[in-house]
Every structure is written in structure tokens, then in C-alpha cells.
Amino acid sequence: MYYNEHFHTIKTLANSNFSHNPKNLILMIADGVGLGHISAARIANKGKLNLDHCKYIGLMGTRASNEFITDSAAAATAIATGVKTKNGAVGVDPQYKPLPNLREILEQRGLKTGLVACCSITEATPAAFIAHQQERMLHEAIAGDFMDTEIDFFFGNGREHFIDREDGIDLSLRLAAKGYEVLESIEDLPYVNHGKVAGLMTECPGVDRGRGDYLESVTKEAIRILKKGENGFFLMVEGSQIDWAAHDNDTATTVKELLDFDKCLGEVLEFAARDGETLVVVTSDHETGGMTIHDGDEKSGKVEGAFTTVMHTGVMVPVFAFGPQAEQFIGIYENTDLFQRLKKSILQTEKGLVSVS
Length: 357
Ligand code: MG
Ligand code: ZN
Fold this sequence. Notes:
Layout: E1 2-3, E2 24-30, H1 35-44, E3 56-61, H2 72-81, H3 102-108, E4 112-120, H4 124-127, H5 139-145, E5 153-157, H6 160-163, H7 171-177, E6 180-183, E7 196-201, H8 214-226, E8 233-239, H9 242-247, H10 251-275, E9 278-283, E10 287-288, E11 292-297, E12 302-306, E13 312-313, E14 317-322, E15 331-334, H11 335-347, E16 348-349, E17 352-353
Helix pairs in contact: 1-10, 2-11, 8-10
Residues 32, 72, 243, 247, 288, 312 line the site of zinc ion (ZN).
């Protein structure tokens, strides 16, 4: 039995008048989250989440190309590129051919782009929006792939993969030469007013081990900086450690990590409601732990979670959408189709649908 003392209040959103087409796209990925996790967090938060504001809901299949149960690399690659690949592969197809990802496509269309994670920025989920590597464990190669992009903002840990490398190259110097403000912590972030940001921290602890409001703060700063672009922006935010808590079959930590993600979502939705031109899509890469609920009480916030495995499972994950074109995300579809829907939604212009290949 778990009693959550850290529940948060839910944002009241302004009456929003959405434009027909989104200018900005914010993709929020809650790693490892299925309906069990969402139910647990919602009970612990006394029956409400910021997620409740998203009225357009779909269900998504997550299998990999070679196995029914996906890992985060194949799952993120499917979402980022629209192609199912082998477990472990990042941004490449099953024959290891590089695939263009959504962030690259939108960067080419002139949007500013950003990634925020609370794990190494070279981990599978953020990496699928940057890298083209056969194997997710190639952290130094993935760090190297950041150099081939024009990404405007990224924040996470994994500093060592950039500065303490086998090839002896200090990529932080290269980033600085490319015009990035290279930061080691979030402290100086509010003072960055122009240019690009590379947030490379040495660690990013769990939310109950000192991470504080990192996810929410960095996401707010990312939006502040990215929205300066004239052509809109794409931002991916990952709740990275929910998956880890679910692998541990730890209900309390799973709930805390997911509530932290939901708090961050509250900030994002508040911005999107005010802005009117931002599409927010919230989903997961796969379910972890086969989590279910054996008992709960929304008045007290007590919830009894249970798990069927310490691995990922093959159940569908939900997709929630808010803002212009949110209705495009209802239905039952595969993770590769999420890519198509994201791409179509954001590339739709006032002149009509841009043809997407
Ligand atoms: Mg992840
Ligand atoms: Zn996992």
C-alpha cells in the first residue's frame, strides 16, 4: 500500500481558441507507461491529472520488427522515423540503413528543435531523434551524431560521452565552436537569451533523490528559447525514469516519477492553451512491468500497485493529444503511424496539406 504525499494541483487552462494548424509540436514521451501506471498516479493524485485536459485519445501498438516485445530503441525509432526496426537499433532500419527522423525533417523545414530528458541525452529515446546507430549502447557514437545536427536545445546527463571519450576528442569544444552555450547544470539556463543550448550534466538523479523540478524547469526554459523561432518549433520531452521504477516493480517511485512528468505536462499545456498554435501529444514508447491496480482510494491517495513482470510488455499504450489537430490522434494504430500523424499535423499549412512522402 502506498500513500502519496506529493500530489500536485491541476492547472486550470485558459479558454483556448486553437488555430486550425499547429505551428509548434511538443511530443511528451513517458517511458514505460501504460494504463496501470496512469491509473496509479491518478489515484495517488486524488483522482486528477493534468493529462485529463487531453480529450483526444488513441491506442498504439508497440512491437519491434524482430520481436513482439519492443525495447526503447526500436520503439523510439518507430515513433521518430515511422519504421519498425530491431531491438537495440537507433534511427536505422532492420538492415541498418539510416532513416530520416521527425526532428531532422522539421529542422529542414526551418523549425527550431529541442530534446529534454532526465537520463543521458544519448539514451535510446532521445537518441532516436538524433542518431543513426546499429546499437543503443554506442553512447560515444551517438554523442558524435549530435555534431551532424543543427538542434537548437538539448538537455540531459551523459556529459562523459561528450568530453571523456575513447577518441580523445572533447565534443563540448566543438559544440561551443558551433555556437552552443554548453551548460553543466540548469543554474545558468535562465540567463541564456539567444543562441543554442547544450545541457550536458554529469548526473540526473531520481525525482525523490534530488532531481527536484528539473524536468518542469528545463522544459519551460526550452519553450522560452525555442519559441523565438519564426517558423515554430519541435520539442520532445521524456519522462525517462518512470520505466526504471517500473522495471523495479516499485509502485511508489513509479507514481512519483509519473507525477513529476504530469507536473511538467501541466506547464506545457498551460503554454499550449495560451499560445493556441501548439499541438501537444503525450504517449509512451511501450509498457513496462505489466502494471495493474489491486486497490486504491482517490480520497486519501492510497494505491496498491501490482506487476506481472520486470520486463516490458506488449499491451497497447495510450496516446493523448491537445491543441490544433488533436483529433488526428484518436483510434487504434501502430507506433509507426504515430510518426505519420505527427508529421502530417505539423506540416499542414494554411494552403492545405503539404505532401509528405
Ligand atoms: Mg527512455
Ligand atoms: Zn525499460
